[in-house]
# Entry
Amino acid sequence: MQTVSNLLAALREGDYSIRARGAGHGDALGEVLAEVNVLGQTLREQRLGALEATALLWRVMAEIEAGVFAFDDQDRLRLVNRAGEVLLGKGSPQLLGRTAAELGLADVLEGDVPRIAEKTFPGGGGRWEVRRGEFRQGGLPHRLLMLSDLSRVLREEERQTWQRLVRVLSHEINNSLAPIQSLAGSLEGLLVREPAPDGWREDLGRGLSVIAERARALGRFMASYARLARLPPPRLEPLDVGAWVRRVALLETRLPVAVKPGPEIVVRADGDQLDQLLINLIANAADAALKTGGGVEVSWRRNGGDVEVRVTDEGTGISDSANLFVPFFTTKPRGSGIGLVLSRQIAEAHGGTLTLRNRTDARGCEASLRLPV
# Structure
């Protein structure tokens, strides 16, 4: 019994290396010793697994770029990773035990999450994605705070966006400037020729007409760009979805647009902006359907907390989905390339989404607009 007592005391102290001799199944005491030995082995394996899991967790936390902070129920810091130390400009010994207010984290420890916050820390400033979670340790509640630096990601996205925009702008402007330069050179040569060739006035008039038309096209293009850049915030008012869909569907006169009835739903939205969005979607659907002699249908339904408005056509479908929402990209001879971009911008300004995809049930395309009810 003294041996059993000593073994149990060792287990209580965390020493799982001691084993009892004489453990067997021939008598009651031997069986007790055998069970104590098995218990010691089990606890040893569990502690080893916990140590390995903890080591892996710390390795992961040390490698991730997001700052990770754990606070107890008194808002005192109990855990911080390497990125968090760099962010606050101090090591763990100087940070642990201090309150969120003392560390300058009180504002991000409260409020809605996830969210984007602009904040400056000793280790750097910028835009941060704020996320929080909860866990319990020792029976007490703790809060986990994660701060991810979005500045570098956003700068890279911004750089790629500018590259795409400059590429499209350059293409469009060069398409207008090249014929203007060529015609201007030809007309200049025509004017200095002696004697003047027959019909030079007609040639001059036609050349100037082409130059004027290209200049007007370039002006329309820049006006479209200005329109895209100056979209105002929506003015939210009650909007009956059914009446809105039926009214806009009647504006398409090239072919009849079928309206599939849906439930009575009212949303808070900017009616003028949503009119423009739906006009663009129906016009695109009609353009595609006219090429194949197909039809266009508009429907709406409730989907959870959203209303989903669908515009389907029986056209040829989407051939280049990667550039659908690239500003000024268009496959139409006289298209501006801002209709879908502007439409998605309007949808997102209302807290919704806009997606386009090829239909799976038939030929054609389906545009899906989701708006919060």
